[in-house]
Write a structure and sequence with these properties.
Length: about 325
């Protein structure tokens, strides 16, 4: 009996040591959009292209049709958790150096003051290989810390997998050596380490986590248009994956219904208008090296706001009709 007690005690201490070694884990509360929530989509091409399809926002909106929730898409092609895409512009005049670019990203978030932020990063950072995953994780933690505020909730999305069927699955061969794993397999082995980094940050911070990498990798139907970027069918699938992962309530109408399609088109119109509001084509006159030539151009982006509001009102009316 004494031996059994000692064994149980040792097992208990070992389990305690394992928990301490892994660090505290916070359980994310059930995800729900509250009345008055301001949602931001922040990330790379995944979110910038999502605005052209509207499925993610439409899916979320239809779960709580009676609640007034606004959405803003800040996705930027090629961006990273360090804000690299936001450092450029014509002659690097928009944001300056990378630290200034990251600062502008955070300043934009604070201006919008979102209560919920969906974050999708990792694909572009993954080209640093598996050794770069640790730096990416630190960058993601820094981003969440700087973007955080009291009662602000985060939903972290993993990178999507590389997909076969686009000519990238040829064996990788070095001169004089036998062929190794194909390129897609290599990329996915690396992307998995970045998925793990996102999952780790979510677990430690008590944030919601959506594992797109594993789920899409197991899917039978293609989700992308080029092996990387989701297409129309891909975003429809991802909207359903998010709904299952976050345990969302059923939508008030089916996502493939005529009513949902009408709503989605209005969502896309609103997203396009907001894109031109914060990413004007004439940025050289608004932000850059020619801003002193036409001062009136700097007053133009804000003029998109009333048009964005018109589309948001149309969205509310469509949702009211569905209740």
């Amino acid at each position: 009996m004494a031996r059994l007690c000692r064994a149980a005690l040792l097992l208990g201490l070992a389990g305690t040591s394992l928990v301490l070694a892994q660090g505290p884990r916070k359980a994310a509360p059930a995800f729900e959009l509250q009345d008055g929530d301001r949602v931001v989509f922040l990330g790379n091409s995944f979110f910038e292209r999502a605005r052209q399809h509207g499925y993610l926002e439409t899916s979320l909106t239809l779960r709580w049709p009676g609640r007034k929730v606004t959405f803003r898409n800040l996705g930027w092609d090629g961006d990273t958790v360090f804000g690299h895409s936001r450092t450029g512009g014509r002659r690097r005049s928009v944001f300056g150096n990378p630290e200034e670019g990251f600062g502008k990203l955070i300043a934009h978030l604070r201006e919008l003051d979102p209560s919920v932020i969906f974050v999708a990063y990792g694909w572009n950072e993954s080209f640093a290989g598996e050794p770069g995953a640790a730096g990416f994780q630190k960058g993601l933690e820094r981003l969440l810390k700087e973007a955080g505020a009291e009662n602000r909730r985060f939903v972290l999305l993993s990178p999507t997998p590389a997909e076969r069927g686009f000519g990238a699955e040829l064996p990788f061969r070095k001169t004089g050596q036998p062929a190794g794993p194909d390129y897609v397999s290599q990329r996915n082995a690396i992307l998995k380490s970045y998925r793990d980094a996102v999952a780790s940050v979510a677990g430690k911070g008590g944030h919601h986590f959506v594992d797109l990498f594993s789920t899409l990798k197991q899917g039978k139907e293609p989700y992308s248009t080029n092996g990387i970027h989701p297409g129309t069918a891909g975003y429809r699938t991802i909207a359903r994956i998010m709904a299952r992962s976050l345990h969302l309530p059923e939508p008030v109408v089916a996502l493939d219904s005529k009513e949902a399609e009408s709503l989605r088109h209005t969502v896309v119109k609103k997203n396009t208008l907001y894109f031109h509001r914060w990413r004007p084509r004439n940025d050289a006159f608004v932000y850059g090296e020619r801003k002193n030539e036409q001062a009136i151009a700097q007053t133009e982006p804000v003029k998109f706001e009333p048009f964005v509001t018109v589309q948001e009102t149309a969205i509310r009316k469509q949702l009211e009709a569905l209740k």
